[in-house]
From TrEMBL:
Naturally occurring in which organism (per UniProt): Bosea vestrisii
PANTHER family: IDURONATE 2-SULFATASE (PTHR45953:SF1)
UniProt cross-references to InterPro entries, sorted A to Z: Alkaline_phosphatase_core_sf, Sulfatase_N
Keywords: Hydrolase, Metal-binding
Protein name, as recorded: Sulfatase
Keyword Metal-binding annotated: yes
Sulfatase N-terminal domain: residues covered: 4-340
Record SUPFAM superfamilies: Alkaline phosphatase-like
Pfam families: Sulfatase
Gene3D superfamilies listed in its UniProt record: Alkaline Phosphatase, subunit A
Length: 508
């Protein structure tokens, strides 16, 4: 068996033609759908970026115990299991620079080898001690300009001075490295290649040829990086931001097409699995919001695309699965493809088992650490918030106390106690660190970041746009019971139930 795993970042399901999108032509995603099983009920797990990747690698939901952080000593990473049990070689190619920050620094070493493509967003790549800030200030919109050192905006501006030709773009270079791996190893067997690109994550930067179809006539400074929060821009500025996202999606479609061409030319469909998905979606003005992290987990963010080609089942090409799936199912899928056994701590279900439309689960749980606990059952979504985000009892359970950019502060650690082992920590005690308002994560992707905190129920059959919250005590009670059961199965700590006013003893 061979496998290629393509992971995009912030790829909106509803933009793809095979999922009903019409705004951006996506001939290659549509072509992939004809070659694979398309999953129609695929959801996120833990959010945002690195929590999502921890779920993918380990097959476990983590948002009820931990925010953004490294893999833990007790975590199971599927590339290591493949190496240990089946001798499968794994190679990671990525421009997702969060892997090299404090909060992600244990992920890439789980693979046999890896290639880091530099230059995305705030990656500390190119060094310019005295940039021409005045010239650059005129070039970029004020809302995405900064001359501060170690700021994402400032570093991105410097990086972009070195990204001019199409072949310079990090995502293009990621796929080029992927083709290099394939050429070198096409005659070998028993390997997994992960091609992971940060695109179409913001800033929405693509070669000019991809923007031509979406030209808005914008004459202002570069405007391709929306802020996280409520929409307050004028219509022309909003259209330019959206158009730049469309252009990056078009570039991703083109890159995917090159990979599909490779599969065709080398007859890889016969013996190579292909999995394509993303970590989450991105709001482009829907619900009057940009981005993620600040608002309720609407479908545009939580309901994501997923494609699986399993060479053992060519008859499934072009089919669709209605099974409820989520990001934690990726790890057991790769283990299944190569004949490895999922560990006892795994919560996911192999997509190979669900590709024929079977529905072995009745709900999926997802969320941000410190925000709402959310559940979807295929028809309804239920988003249950604490009564007061600022007063909830909340702890990080970890042996790797780092945030995205930094270690935990000494002020945070001052209140640390030792927690006995949780059900999935393999007997390891944990640091139990209280969340405080001065935590670096609190106002970034934690409780202080949220601009919405109202418990809501939506009926997607009658209200697919989630515009009118439903009041139905019976449905809410059923989904609350489903949520309680899934949290119990996950091993959520007692305060995780208390913060959203659920009685864990009623789980069943």
């Amino acid at each position: 068996m061979k496998a290629v795993f393509v992971l995009f970042d912030s790829l909106n399901r509803h933009m793809l033609g095979c999922y009903g999108g019409t705004r951006v032509p996506t001939p290659n995603f549509d072509r992939l759908a004809r070659r694979s099983v398309s999953f129609d009920q695929h959801y996120v797990g833990s959010l945002p970026c690195m929590p999502a990747r921890r779920d993918m690698l380990t097959g476990r939901l983590t948002f009820l115990h931990r925010s953004w952080g490294p893999l833990e000593p007790f975590d199971n990473a599927f590339p290591e299991i493949l190496h240990r049990e089946t001798g499968t070689y794994s190679h990671l190619i990525t421009d997702h620079f969060h892997y090299w920050e404090d909060g992600g620094a244990t992920y890439h070493n789980r693979y046999d080898s890896y290639e880091f493509v530099r230059g995305q967003e705030g990656d500390r790549w190119k060094a310019m001690v005295q940039p021409h800030w005045e010239r650059l200030r005129e070039k970029y919109h004020a809302r995405q300009f900064s001359d501060a050192r170690r700021s994402y905006f400032g570093q991105n501006i410097i990086n972009r001075e070195f990204i001019k030709a199409e072949e310079d773009f990090p995502s293009v270079r990621c796929f080029a490295e992927g083709f290099d791996f394939l050429e070198r190893n096409k005659d070998a067997d028993n390997w997994l290649l992960q091609i992971e690109t940060f695109d179409p994550h913001e800033p929405f930067t693509a070669p000019a040829r991809f923007k031509e179809a979406f030209d808005t006539g914008w004459n202002g400074p570069i405007r391709d990086w929306p802020r996280y929060g409520r929409v307050d821009e004028l219509p022309a500025e909003c259209e330019e931001l959206r158009a730049n996202y469309y252009a990056v999606v078009a570039m991703c479609d083109d890159l995917l097409g090159q990979l599909l061409d490779w599969f065709d030319a080398n007859e890889m469909w016969k013996d190579t699995a292909l999995v394509v998905t993303t970590d989450h979606g991105f709001l482009l003005g829907e619900h009057d919001f940009w981005a993620k992290n600040r608002m309720n987990l609407y479908e545009e963010v939580a309901h994501i695309p997923l494609f699986l080609h399993d060479p053992r089942h060519p008859e499934r090409a072009g089919t669709r699965s209605q099974a409820l799936t989520q990001s934690i199912d990726l790890a057991p899928t790769f283990l299944d493809l190569f004949g490895a056994t999922p560990p006892a701590e795994n919560e996911g279900i192999s997509l190979c088992r669900m590709a024929d439309g079977a529905a072995p689960r009745d709900g999926v749980l997802f969320g941000y650490f410190g925000g709402a606990v959310n559940v979807a059952d295929g028809r309804y979504t239920y988003h249950r918030f604490p009564e007061d985000l600022s007063k909830q009892e909340l702890y990080q359970y970890t042996l790797m106390p780092t945030h995205i950019f930094s270690p935990f502060s000494t002020e945070e650690l001052a209140g640390t106690t030792i927690s006995p082992p949780l059900g999935f920590t393999k007997g390891a005690n944990l640091l139990k660190v209280p969340v405080i308002e001065r935590s670096p994560m609190y106002n970034n992707y934690g409780p202080g970041a949220l601009l919405e905190s109202e418990t809501r129920l939506y009926d997607l059959a009658t209200d697919p746009g989630q515009e009118a919250p439903l009041s139905d005590a019976a449905v809410e009670g059923r989904l609350a019971a489903l949520m309680r059961r899934l949290m119990t199965e996950n091993g959520a700590p007692p305060e995780a139930f208390a913060r959203i006013d659920l009685d864990p003893s009623a789980a069943g």
